[in-house]
Design brief:
Two copies of one chain form a homodimer.
Chain A (H helix, E strand, L loop, with lengths): L9 E4 L4 H13 L3 E7 L6 H12 L4 E6 L37 H16 L3 E3 L15 H14 L1 H4 L5 E3 L7 H11 L21 H13 L14
Parallel strand pairs in A: 1-2, 1-4, 2-3, 4-5
Helix pairs in contact in A: 1-6, 6-7
């Protein structure tokens, strides 16, 4: 019998949210070395970055890197501009279509940076925690976007030319939020270290899209969220 | 007769080199507003950024933005690591295949950031000065890479979903360096403001890949390069 092949090294795009935390838990189980990459792009919810760091420590990654993008006027989004209202907050109903929290080309930028890190560190895989089921309507969370980036990654890199392209893993793509909570529970994700709320406060607002989706996922999975705001869910 | 449609606004990825300068000249002629985006990623030849700024001023762009990437260990390349030798310099022969100056996923990152800027500013086009003829062997300068990014840009963005994707223009893709010099001459590119040398000195080294390709282009087009080092070409 030949020995089993070494486990591949991975880059995990780690935002600090529940999805990327679950991806990290999965990557940690499947990979050799894990390189966590957290990107600070001027988002309101900077607390995410602290959550990412705590999660990276919890899962004992080989490296944790925070990349700061001096975005200037790069991103037009309510997620980076405190002057804009977030959907769901301040009594606003969530509009149909792509919400104002959409950040132009965000996952393209994130995957491009992860691709550079993977190639520089000799990692074989990139884990990205997008999901297309209970998603927020973002175009760059759809299966066709991920498939298109896979093709691009083969063409864009030395590794692709050499016939060993970096693989893009999106293991949550077809899972509901409840499925993600169940998977995270099995993998031992410390939910208390994660952060989802968009609003940037010290406790989750309970009203933004991200808080709502999180609450739905935990409720449907029948799991208690340690971050669940005690009173705010009542109305 | 209906009035002619307004000229589209454009984002130009401006490195400060002769190719992106020619792209800028072309975009300035064809576009309404022009937004020049220069990305500082820790390259040795930081003088490029000053050239980009001077070119943006020369062509009176609507906005000029320098985006600094705190790359850390993101890029493994002789172009960002002064401890590595550049091909062609220090008596080294240029190796076959992809050279050490390849920067992992660079054009993917650049296009992703330009895509975000285009969508945020409402620009319709992105100009990228890649060319595949006298190119340096980089995978992300090939036509198939550009075609793949075009597909990705449609899927990744709000504009794509809404049926008016940002167009990726690579007008130099099939031109030789000599063709680019001829085109730039017609468009009035101020070659003296451009910068090509990789080595990071105050005058071009005349020996790195980029200096060699530049010299070849000017020689074949029969145009004098105002930056041409007087003595170094002899051996």
């Amino acid at each position: 019998m030949s020995p089993s092949p070494p486990r591949p090294d991975s880059v995990v795009l780690l935002s600090g949210g529940m999805d990327s935390a679950t991806c990290l838990a999965l990557a940690a189980r499947r990979s050799g070395r894990v390189h966590a990459l957290c990107i600070a792009y001027g988002q309101r919810h900077r607390r995410e970055v602290e959550s990412a760091r705590a999660l990276a420590r919890h899962f004992r990654v080989s490296s944790f890197e925070t990349l700061r993008l001096s975005t200037g006027s790069l991103f037009h989004s309510s997620l980076t501009d405190p002057a804009q209202a977030l959907p769901g907050t301040r009594g606003r109903r969530r509009p149909r279509g792509i919400p104002s929290t959409y950040v132009p080309a965000r996952n393209t930028i994130f995957l491009a940076l992860a691709l550079a890190l993977a190639e520089s560190r000799g990692a074989d895989r990139i884990y990205l925690g997008v999901n297309a089921v209970d998603y927020s309507g973002y175009p760059d969370c759809r299966p066709e976007f991920v498939a298109s980036f896979r093709r691009l990654a083969r063409l864009a890199t030395r590794r692709g030319v050499e016939g060993r392209p970096v693989r893009i893993e999106a293991p949550l793509l077809h899972l509901s939020k409840a499925d993600i909570v169940r998977l995270g529970e099995r993998l031992g994700v410390p939910w208390g270290l994660t952060w989802s709320c968009y609003a940037g406060g010290s406790v989750p607002c309970g009203r933004c899209d991200s808080c709502r989706l999180r609450a739905l996922g935990f409720a449907q999975a029948g799991v208690d969220d340690p971050l669940r705001p005690a009173r705010r869910r009542r109305r």
